[in-house]
């Protein structure tokens, strides 16, 4: 007969072994990030768009859309240096400002990027981003804000991926330019999704190292911390909520059942493509989530499309799924399709830092 002491020792030993395996997985990726340079995540071919700060912001936005890019570095010809980054969502935020203040949106067609970024009202009201709550306090206990409009943060192509990941995380950046230092050239702009793709490509076969569930590992946001939107809410309301919480997307849920209906991302420009001019675009900010989700393209799968998972998914299975669809986030749902959490590419990378 097995003694009580032996029986209790067995589960304890299994827990210790599991902790060792878990730490081994984290250490393996941490070492990998320190050994790899930023060159390793750059594509063999690609393009970089750089904007002169003197061009109209409206023209810059349409150039981003035409080139299917989310962000572009900003070059100040007077100072002969890069001064920040412009994103697709920045133009949307500027439209929000015009709506809030009742300003004449027709004037936007002639306002340069430099002019917009020098406008303290716009900069402090809609362009300076809040940081997601779980990342909002730094190591010194200070509240953080994210601002890539008044300074240019970049990383050298020879720097380690660990350095790049810490810059992304510690500075709460969505995009990080990779520079070729000798000639001040931007080679590419990397994101958490770029880094995660590199990790998955190199570690997806090492199943035993990542066999714990994402919930047990504390990866993601759960419970009352999860911010949601409802079908009746206007785009302007939802964009304001995303801005306040420093989020890039929000699950849209049924008000009665709390079941997932879709996901809305700040980078979704459907409401702009449907507009005939700037005034029409501002008017479209009054559209409801219900209407906007019905207009979303379903024939094209993007990283911002709705992808769900269970709270019981292992980190390994999430890696496998990412290898198939390259998501920016997963909406965690229960057996009844009710939203219980959100796991972003940022959360997955941050776990290893």
Mean pLDDT reading: 87
Q: What amount of the residues lies in strands?
A: 15-25%
| Low-confidence spans | 1-8
CA radius of gyration: 22 Å
Straight-line N-to-C gap:
46 Å
Secondary structural class: alpha/beta
Could you estimate the helical fraction of the residues in percent? 25-40%
Biggest sheet strand line-up: 9-14-13-12
**Could you spell the SSE succession in H and E letters?**
HEHEEHHHEEEHEEHEHEEHHHEHEEH
How many β-strand runs? 14
Number of helices: 13
Assembly annotation: single chain
Shape: globular
Description of the structure:
The chain has 353 residues and is of the alpha/beta class. The strands form five sheets. The protein has a four-stranded mixed beta sheet. A three-stranded mixed beta sheet has the order 1-2-3. A three-stranded mixed beta sheet has the order 6-7-8. Helix 1 packs across helix 6, helix 3 packs across helix 5 and helix 7 packs across helix 12. The N terminus is likely disordered.
Write the layout of secondary structure elements.
Elements: H1 4-35, E1 51-52, H2 57-66, E2 71-76, E3 81-87, H3 88-101, H4 113-117, H5 120-127, E4 129-130, E5 145-146, E6 155-156, H6 161-170, E7 176-180, E8 185-190, H7 192-203, E9 221-222, H8 235-245, E10 249-253, E11 260-265, H9 270-273, H10 278-283, H11 289-295, E12 308-310, H12 315-325, E13 329-333, E14 339-344, H13 345-350
Parallel strand pairs: 1-2, 6-7, 12-13
Antiparallel strand pairs: 2-3, 4-5, 7-8, 9-14, 10-11, 13-14
Helix pairs in contact: 1-6, 3-5, 7-12
């Amino acid at each position: 007969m097995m003694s009580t002491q032996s029986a209790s020792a067995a589960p304890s030993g299994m827990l210790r072994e599991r902790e060792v395996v878990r730490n081994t997985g984290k250490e393996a990726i941490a070492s990998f990030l320190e050994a790899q340079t930023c060159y390793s995540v750059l594509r063999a071919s690609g393009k970089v768009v750089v904007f002169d700060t003197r061009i109209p912001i409206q023209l810059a936005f349409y150039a981003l859309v035409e080139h299917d890019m989310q962000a572009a570095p900003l070059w100040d010809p007077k100072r002969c240096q890069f001064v920040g980054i412009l994103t697709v969502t920045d133009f949307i935020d500027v439209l929000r400002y015009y709506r809030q203040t009742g300003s004449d949106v027709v004037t936007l067609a002639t306002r340069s990027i430099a002019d917009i970024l020098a406008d303290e009202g716009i900069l402090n009201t809609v362009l300076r981003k809040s940081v997601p709550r779980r990342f909002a306090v730094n190591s010194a206990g200070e509240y953080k804000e994210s601002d890539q409009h008044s300074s240019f943060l970049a990383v050298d192509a020879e720097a380690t991926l660990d350095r790049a990941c810490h810059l992304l995380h510690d500075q709460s950046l969505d995009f990080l330019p990779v520079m070729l230092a000798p000639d001040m050239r931007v080679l590419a702009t990397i994101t958490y999704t770029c880094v995660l793709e590199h990790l998955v490509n190199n570690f997806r076969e090492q199943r035993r190292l990542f066999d714990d569930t994402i919930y047990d590992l504390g990866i993601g946001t759960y419970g009352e911390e999860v911010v949601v939107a409802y079908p009746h809410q206007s785009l302007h309301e939802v964009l304001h909520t995303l801005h306040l919480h420093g989020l890039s997307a929000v699950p849209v849920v049924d008000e009665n059942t709390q079941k997932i209906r879709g996901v809305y991302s700040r980078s979704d420009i459907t409401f702009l493509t449907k507009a005939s001019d700037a005034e029409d675009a501002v008017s479209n900010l009054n559209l409801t989530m219900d209407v906007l989700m019905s207009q979303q393209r379903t024939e094209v799968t993007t990283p911002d499309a709705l992808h769900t998972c269970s709270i019981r998914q292992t980190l390994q299975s999430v890696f496998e799924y990412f290898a198939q669809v390259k998501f920016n986030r997963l909406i965690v749902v229960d057996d009844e399709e009710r939203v219980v959490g959100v796991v972003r590419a940022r959360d997955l990378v941050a776990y290893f830092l």
